[in-house]
From TrEMBL, chain A:
Residues 1-36 form the signal peptide. The chain crosses the membrane at residues 143-165, 172-192. Keywords: Membrane, Signal, Transmembrane, Transmembrane helix. InterPro entries: Filamin/ABP280_repeat-like. This is Secreted protein.
UniProtKB/TrEMBL annotation, chain B:
This is YtkA-like domain-containing protein. Keywords: Membrane, Transmembrane, Transmembrane helix. The chain crosses the membrane at residues 12-32. The keyword Transmembrane helix applies. It comes from the Bacteria.
Length: 433, 132
C-alpha cells in the first residue's frame, strides 16, 4: 500500500517524457541553409575555372580536422596547366604556397577553421577564391546523453550499495528513480537527436538563426579590355557585379552548378559559342579571356546565384571590330564537333509544350559541372536564354526536356565532357506559330 | 505521518530533478544556438583587425599595422540595407571605437573597415552578427 502510494507520487518517466517532449518541441527550429564556398567533412568544394586557355575544375577536398591537411586537386577537360596556388588564412594572415596539376594534387596545412583565400595563377591570369574551412563540432545534446548515462551508472552503483547496507527502502528507491530519469533522458535524446537543433560548425560565417532567404538583385556592367576587341586577338571580358540596393560590389556568390558564374558568349548569328567560367579577379569582378574570329556584335549571358538566393541571369553585349580572322583553336577546352545526332521529339515542337531533345554522344560522358550534359538554348533575337540539364539517361545518349517558350527560331548547343574534352553540338530548332 | 513526509520529500526531489533537467536542456539549447557579439578577427595584407559590434558600438582593435584613421561602412546583404559610413574615434593606440545608432536592425552585417596610416590604405571586409 505504502509502496503504491509512493509510486503514484513519483516524477514518473512518463511525466518526464512529456515535459522533455514539450521542451524539445519548443526548441526545434528549421535548419538554416548552407552558406556558400564551404569545405567541410563530406562536402568538397568544386569550382570550375577557365584559366590559361583551359577548362578545369578545382576541387578543395574536405577536411575532418583542424589543424590538419587540406588537399587541392585539379581536373582538366581534357587537360590543365600546372597551377600556382597560394593559400591564405583571412583570420590570421598565414600564407602557404603550392602547385597543383591533374593527378598531382597540392597538399596544404590549415591551422584553423574559418575564412581562407585560395589564389590560383596560371598563364598570367589570377583568380582569388574565398572559402571557409568548417569542422563539425559535437552537438551539445551528446552532453545530455553521456551525462544521463553517467548519472544513471553512478546512481545504480550507489543504489546497490544503499540496498546492501540500508534495510529501509526509501533511499535506494530514490536513487533508482533518479537513475531511471538519467537513462530516460539519454534514451530520449538518442531517439530525438536527428531533429534537435545543433550549433553551427567551427569556422562558419556568423549568421542569425532563421535567416531570411533572398537578397537584392544584381546589377552588372559588362565590358571588354581593350574596349574595342579585334577579331582574332585575345581580349578580356569583364563582368562587374553591384548590389541593386546598396551599390556595393556583390561578393557573396554561391557555388552554382560547380561555378561562381557561368558565362555564355554567342555571336548574334549563333555561329560563335563559348560557355566559360570567369575568374574572380577582385570582389565583385569576374574576368575571362576570349578570342573571337569574326567582327560583329556578341551577346553575353551570366548565370549566377547569390548566397541565400535563387539563380539570376544577367545580360550584356560587346562589339568585335576588324576583318574576320579564323582562330587556330575554337576556344578554351572546347571542341566543336558535329559529333552527335540530334533528335527533337516531337519533330515540330509546339511553343509552351515540353519537347525532348536527344543527343547521341561520341564517347562516354563524364560528369562536368555536376551533370552528364548541358543544353544551352538561345532565341534567335537573343531575348531568351535557357540552360537545361540532362536528367541521367543510360547509354551513350543525353536526353533533355525543355519547353520552347514562344514560336520562333532557337539556337541550341548541347555540351558534354569525355576524356577528349568538352564536346559542343550546335543545332537549331524551329518552333512554328 | 512517515508516509506523508516521505511522499513530500519525494515530490520535492522530483521537482528538483525536473528543474535540473530543464536547466540542462535550456543550457544546451543556448550553447547550441550561441550567437552574437563575438569578436571577428580578419587579417588584410597591411592591417589585422579584431572587431566587436553591437547595435550602438563598433569596437576595432588593431592586431597588426598602425592606423591613423578607421572608418566603417555597414551593409546588411540579406535586406539590402546600407548605413552611412562612420569614423571611429581613437581611444588608445591601436583601439578605435564608433558609437551611435550604427545598425538599423540586428542580424548578419557585412562591415567594410577602411584603415589609413603609415602602412597605406586598406579596406578589410567581413561578416559579423549584430545582436539587438
Amino acid at each position: 500500500m505504502i509502496r503504491l502510494l509512493r509510486l503514484s507520487r513519483l516524477p514518473c518517466p512518463v511525466g518526464l517524457l512529456r515535459l522533455l517532449c514539450l521542451a524539445v518541441l519548443l526548441v526545434v527550429t528549421s535548419a538554416s541553409p548552407a552558406a556558400a564556398h564551404d569545405v567541410r567533412a563530406g562536402a568538397d568544394l568544386r569550382i570550375a575555372q577557365t584559366i590559361a586557355g583551359a577548362e578545369l575544375t578545382l576541387v578543395i577536398k574536405a577536411t575532418t580536422r583542424v589543424p590538419g591537411p587540406l588537399r587541392v586537386e585539379v581536373i582538366g577537360f581534357p587537360s590543365a596547366p600546372a597551377l600556382d596556388l597560394r593559400l591564405r588564412s583571412t583570420a590570421d594572415g598565414r600564407v602557404t604556397h603550392g602547385t597543383a596539376a591533374p593527378r598531382r594534387p597540392a597538399q596544404f596545412r590549415v591551422e584553423e577553421t574559418g575564412p581562407h583565400e585560395l589564389t590560383v595563377g596560371a598563364g598570367g591570369e589570377t583568380a582569388v577564391i574565398p572559402f571557409r574551412v568548417l569542422v563539425d563540432r559535437g552537438s551539445g545534446w551528446e552532453f545530455l546523453i553521456y551525462g544521463g548515462l553517467f548519472v544513471a551508472g553512478l546512481l545504480l552503483v550507489g543504489g546497490l550499495l544503499t540496498g546492501a547496507f540500508n534495510r529501509r527502502g526509501r533511499p535506494a528507491f530514490v536513487v533508482t528513480a533518479v537513475a531511471a530519469a538519467g537513462i530516460s533522458v539519454a534514451a530520449l535524446i538518442v531517439v530525438l537527436e536527428p531533429w534537435l537543433p545543433t550549433g553551427p560548425p567551427d569556422g562558419a560565417e556568423p549568421r542569425p538563426t532563421g535567416s531570411v532567404l533572398g537578397r537584392p538583385y544584381v546589377q552588372r556592367v559588362v565590358t571588354t579590355v581593350p574596349a574595342r576587341p579585334v577579331a582574332g586577338e585575345e581580349f578580356v571580358t569583364r563582368v562587374e557585379l553591384f548590389d541593386g540596393s546598396t551599390g556595393r560590389p556583390v561578393d557573396d556568390l554561391a557555388v552554382h552548378h560547380e561555378a561562381m558564374a557561368h558565362l555564355v558568349v554567342t555571336s548574334e548569328d549563333g555561329r560563335y559559342f563559348r560557355h566559360v567560367h570567369p575568374l574572380r579577379a577582385a570582389p565583385g569582378r569576374l574576368e575571362v579571356r576570349l578570342r573571337a574570329d569574326r567582327p560583329g556584335r556578341y551577346l553575353a549571358y551570366v548565370e549566377l546565384e547569390r548566397t541565400d538566393s535563387g539563380g539570376q541571369l544577367l545580360t550584356g553585349s560587346f562589339t568585335v571590330a576588324g576583318p574576320a580572322k579564323p582562330t587556330p583553336s575554337p576556344g578554351p577546352g572546347v571542341q566543336d564537333a558535329a559529333a552527335g545526332t540530334v533528335t527533337v521529339t516531337p519533330a515540330v515542337p509546339r511553343a509552351g509544350r515540353p519537347a525532348t531533345v536527344e543527343v547521341v554522344t561520341n564517347g562516354t560522358p563524364r560528369p562536368w559541372l555536376g551533370m552528364a550534359g548541358h543544353l544551352i538554348v538561345r532565341a534567335e533575337d537573343g531575348e531568351f536564354l535557357g540552360h537545361v540539364h540532362e536528367m541521367g539517361t543510360p547509354g551513350g545518349r543525353l536526353r533533355f526536356t525543355f519547353g520552347f517558350p514562344a514560336p520562333g527560331r532557337y539556337f541550341a548547343w548541347a555540351q558534354y565532357a569525355t576524356d577528349r574534352g568538352i564536346t559542343t553540338v550546335p543545332f537549331t530548332v524551329e518552333v512554328p506559330r | 505521518m512517515i508516509q506523508a513526509k516521505g511522499a513530500k520529500g519525494l515530490r520535492g526531489l522530483g521537482g528538483l530533478v525536473l528543474a535540473g533537467l530543464l536547466a540542462v536542456i535550456v543550457a544546451a539549447f543556448v550553447v547550441a544556438r550561441s550567437s552574437g557579439g563575438d569578436p571577428v578577427t580578419t587579417a588584410g595584407t597591411r592591417y589585422a583587425v579584431t572587431v566587436t559590434a553591437d547595435r550602438n558600438t563598433i569596437d576595432v582593435r588593431l592586431g597588426r599595422g598602425e592606423a591613423d584613421t578607421v572608418t566603417v561602412a555597414a551593409v546588411m546583404p540579406a535586406m539590402g540595407h546600407a548605413m552611412p559610413e562612420v569614423t571611429a574615434r581613437k581611444t588608445d593606440p591601436g583601439h578605435f571605437v564608433a558609437e551611435g545608432d550604427l545598425f538599423s536592425m540586428g542580424g548578419g552585417w557585412e562591415l567594410s573597415v577602411r584603415l589609413t596610416g603609415p602602412p597605406g590604405e586598406e579596406t578589410i571586409t567581413f561578416t559579423t552578427l549584430v545582436t539587438d
